[in-house]
Each structure stands twice: as structure tokens, then as C-alpha cells.
Amino acid sequence: MRRKTLAILTLIGLGLFLVSIGTIVVETAVNAVYCSSPNCPLPSIPSTPPTWQIVVSIIGEVSILAAGVLQIIAWIGAMTKQAKRQQWTWFVCTFLFSPICLWIYLLAVPEALELVYIQPEQPIYRPYTQGYGAPKAATSRRSGALGHPQHSRLS
User: Fold this and answer.
1) Which of 20, 30, 93, 112 has a beta carbon 3.0–4.6 Å from 63's, enabling a disulfide?
2) What is the mean pLDDT of residues 120-142?
């Protein structure tokens, strides 16, 4: 994976994680205010939660699941890149302390240039061949390749 792709996955995962934490905090705060009032059902009486609470809970759970999946994809992609480059110190640190080392790796480590061998399509030197299309031997101005006189300005 390219470094840009890893950074995008990491940032989207971080954003989804913050959204999920925000929804869980809002749900908990509203639930605490709701249950501190006399409207809170008794623990012995089972009741269904309000619809808003179910929706907020689903949004929080889905976003934290998506954030985790994106972070795991970025983590595996970074470790694969480090293993291909034989950066074993970064590999072990990313494996043990994944989110922090992944962010440091994306910010601090410069992108290495990949060497690419380009083979020329045609050789630069074309060998001399006899036959059709071969370069003709140098001849005098007055006679052509077959001995016929050529028209020139001097004659």
C-alpha cells in the first residue's frame, strides 16, 4: 500500500472512532439525566428503550466497528510495507504498539524511492546486415550503386 493510502485509512478510522466515542458519551449522559428523573423505569420492570437510544447505540457500534476494521487494514498494510523494506525495528514496534507507532511511522519516516529497471525497446546500435534495407556502400558522385551515371549539376 502507498503511504497516502495508509494515512487516509488511519485518519478515517480515527474519525469514525471519535464519532463512536461521541455517540456513546451523548447516549450515556442523556440516559443518566433521564434516569435521574422519576421517569426512569424500575430495574425490576423490563421495558424497551426509547427509539433515539437504539438509533444512537447502533450508530456508535457500527462506527466503532468500521473504525476498527480500517485501523487493522492500515496496520497490516504498514507492517507489510516495513517487512518488504526489511525495516525490522519499525515492524516490531508497529506490531507491539500499533496505533502510536503507525502514526509516527506515517509522519516521520520518509518515503523510499523504488528502483525500476526500464529496458530499452530497440538497441542503440544496429548491426550492419546485408540484403534489403542494408546501408549502401559509399559510391562516387558520378556513378550509382549499379554503375549507372547519376545526373548531377557538375556534369
Assistant:
1) 20
2) 61
